[in-house]
Amino acid sequence: xxxxxxxxxxxxxxxxxxxxxxxxxxxxxxxxxxxxxxxxxxxxxxxxxxxxxxxxxxxxxxxxxxxxxxxxxxxxxxxxxxxxxxxxxxxxxxxxxxxxxxxxxxxxxxxxxxxxxxxxxxxxxxxxxxxxxxxxxxxxxxxxxxxxxxxxxxxxxxxxxxxxxxxxxxxxxxxxxxxxxxxxxxxxxxxxxxxxxxxxxxxxxxxxxxx
Length: 211
Ligand SMILES: C[S@@+](CC[C@H](N)C(=O)[O-])C[C@H]1O[C@@H](n2cnc3c(N)ncnc32)[C@H](O)[C@@H]1O
Description:
Layout: E1 3-4, E2 7-8, H1 17-23, H2 31-41, E3 49-53, H3 59-66, E4 71-76, H4 79-87, E5 95-99, E6 114-120, H5 131-140, E7 142-155, H6 158-165, E8 178-179, H7 180-189, E9 195-198, E10 203-209
Parallel strand pairs: 3-4, 3-6, 4-5, 6-7, 7-8
Antiparallel strand pairs: 1-2, 7-10, 9-10
Helix pairs in contact: 2-3
Bound molecules: S-adenosylmethionine.
């Protein structure tokens, strides 16, 4: 995602974001189920440590805390989105939100630190040429046997994406939807098997366990 006029372009969405996800029936169809599935595949439990990248207003992060009982850190480039997330935090809960520029590309945590690294509806803002590097960075901070999981707009390959997108008029210049065949190759180089589950014509949940 580009920084425009010194501000992240999601900044202007922050006030309306939690309403948009209930109204936009294309992009956010089955939103709650997608987030629940991401939490489920991570097999979270009390005391596990989770990183949610592109956390926005924190919806996935709070699910990891409330349904998974995990300790959660949510990171995002947009301060206004994070401000919305922080407003939802109850006193003494084991969740925190931090601003990080380009958090898929470089995150500030040590190797093998998290039990799960998750993201929903955010990785498609990263250009295709940077995705392999970002996957490696996410897996770097994941413990052995930890789970990486994503819920997002995804296509099986470039051709399927081209066909599918003819039906939609919401393609933005900053959107680079994941392609399963390309991600699969990256995960293979890390010795990981990518698992996939389709939720809508455009939304999938993908996950993989670190060896
Ligand atoms: C559509 S929202 C998704 C928020 C949340 N994960 C959810 O599922 O509702 C996309 C979020 O990704 C963040 N974002 C945009 N570009 C990003 C990038 N390059 N790296 C990480 N996060 C980014 C935005 O600031 C925004 O909060």
